[in-house]
Amino acid sequence: MPPKCCLWTAWRPAAGCTDMAMIFDSHAHYDDSAFDEDRDALLRSFPARGVEGVINCAVNAASARQSMQLAETYPHVWCAVGIHPEEAASATPEELEACLALAAHPKAVAIGEIGLDYHYEDACPRDRQQYWFEQQLDAAVRLDLPVIVHDREAHEDTLNRLTKFRPRGVVHCFSGSVEMARQVIRLGLYIGIGGVVTFKNARKLVEVAAEIPLDRLLLETDAPYMAPVPHRGKRCDSTLIADTARVIADIRDIPVEQLLAQNRQNITDLFGIA
Fold first, then answer.
1. Residues facing 28 on adjacent strands
2. What is the mean pLDDT of residues 26-44?
3. pTM to 2 decimals?
4. Cα 229–120–94 angle (5° rounding)?
């Protein structure tokens, strides 16, 4: 096993993926402490390892500043700024203003990660999550920026607010049904799919991956979380989209290169990253 400072050196291309189109990761968290020991080396390695770009998603104002620093340091990194629902309990108007000030930067391409998370009932009251979600949806529409939406066990309330505010954006780490995916797409939004689609118990997400139009699908990692099989349980990074893409391509019976190329076009269409 390599030393922690060089964890990424153990990487090998996924089988059959050495000639794939370049990877663009629509959702990661490289400001997370899981990358503290090798962040710079890892991010600098990406272009040579098939990763063309990454959108780093903030969870609060401090994370937004760190995400912006990464975007300014690495040409292949962009950022989203916002307050995650798990951070809503301590959110303040000043924190939101700090995020929105950063949103004016050319490398800030979205408001996110924002949304609702009802999994841990004691983490943050629902009404407080809903308040900050609505504040940020309103801001995104005013600023004409897409949103990156977190929806965990809050499908109805999330859909209601997306219907009310009608932002551009993506529902990341999608966990709903095929019917919900259709509703999201009817609102003009994208569906984000990551490593979970490779898990044995992912029947519902496999159905979504098979059903949705390719021009509404975004590939993501949520790094350092949600590593795809055969890396499940390990730290995830953007190179592992190769494994996720191969599974989705098999589900849809298309070349993996076609999927990655469409993902890249979708990134351009939604986030304006040429």
1. 56, 223
2. 98
3. 0.92
4. 105
Per the CB < 8 A criterion, the answer to whether 76 and 52 are in contact is yes
What is the C-alpha separation between 204 and 84, in angstroms, rounded?
25
Distance of CA 191 to the CA centre of its chain: 10
Identify the DSSP state of 227.
P
Q: Which uninterrupted H or E stretch holds 44? A: helix 39-45
pLDDT value at residue 16: 36
Q: How far apart are CA 55 and CA 268, in angstroms?
A: 12
Residue type, 113: E
The first and second tokens of residue 197, run together, are 């689609």
pLDDT at 270 exceeding the cut of 60: yes
Handedness of CA 44, 49, 54, 59 (dihedral sign): negative
Evaluate whether 9 touches 39 at the Cβ level (below 8 Å).
Answer: no
Domain at 26-271: CATH code = 3.20.20.140
